[in-house]
Amino acid sequence: MSNKYILDVHCHTISSGHAYSTVTECAKGASENGIKLIAITDHAPKMPGSCSFLHFWNLKSIPKTLYGVEILSGVELNILDKSGKVDLSEKTLKMLDVIIASLHIPCIKPMSYEENTECLINTMKNPYIKILGHPGDPRYPFDIKKVVLAAKETNTILELNNASLSPENGRYDKPDTLINLLNECKKQNVPIILGSDSHFHTNIGNFKEAEKILEKVNFPEELILNTSIEKFKLFLHRN
């Protein structure tokens, strides 16, 4: 694991229904991999097999620190339509630290290029949403320049998702799309965040595939929020 990166805020537990580690195991795995801060971001209720809103209401019961790792409460929301509708209420979102919103096939069918673009832009207008998850999914093509400019305007962080770069993943991201996305982020000075999208605790902090893409575009380290807890938290609270 790279010691440059000390936080990973896209981590799933058994509560997501298709992940296989507990919160305690995630904290221990993070500590062993040199990660100082994680967010528990289980899938929101519309994902088949995931938990109800009560799971997110009760995240406050988790210790703030385990194995020396700071733990933030969070969620990976499902985007439900092109208006940017998501599957948790504002009341629930107010309780959480890190809110990711993503397009998932079980929850929304791919639309046209223009509709996908509109959908992502509308989603980022929601002030509670902090991170746009795995935007490189090739099943949802979109206008990269428009989405990056919207991210800049709304202070939304774009994710470079490590799991999506594995050929074993069902939504295998095309590197060319991500290279174009990262180049536009460089041009517009828009920060990104690396997410392991870990569904098993040993993978927390694994950004190996993402790092290969970063090297190809010579992406500036100062625009990667995983390098500093302070920098990440400052950006998180800009909205």
Classification by helices and strands: alpha/beta
The proportion of residues forming helix, as a percent range, comes to 25-40%
* Secondary structure tally: strands: 8
Oligomer class: single chain
- Provide the CATH top-level class: Alpha Beta
Order of helices and strands: EHEHEEHEHEHEHEHH
Q: β content, as a range?
A: 15-25%
Q: What CATH architecture do you see?
A: Alpha-Beta Barrel
Largest β-sheet summary: 8 strands, mixed
Uncertain regions spanning at least 5 consecutive residues:
none
CATH H level, superfamily name: Metal-dependent hydrolases
Number of helices: 8
User: What best-fitting shape do the alpha-carbon axes yield?
Assistant: globular
The end-to-end span amounts to 31 Å
CATH topology: TIM Barrel
Mean residue pLDDT: 95
- Structurally, the number of domains stands at 1
What's the gyration radius in Å?
16 Å
Protein architecture, described:
With 239 residues, the chain is of the alpha/beta class. The protein has a single domain, classed as TIM Barrel (Alpha-Beta Barrel). 31% of the residues lie in helices and 15% in strands. It is built from eight helices and eight strands, in the order E-H-E-H-E-E-H-E-H-E-H-E-H-E-H-H. It has helices at 23-32, 53-57, 90-93, 113-124, 144-154, 175-188, 208-217, 229-236, and strands at 7-11, 37-40, 65-66, 69-78, 98-102, 131-132, 157-161, 192-195. Strands 1, 2, 3, 4, 5, 6, 7 and 8 form an eight-stranded mixed beta sheet that branches. Strand 4 (69-78), helix 3 and strand 5 form a beta-alpha-beta unit. The longest helix has 14 residues, at 175-188. The protein starts with 6 loop residues before the first strand and ends with a helix. 46% of the residues are buried.
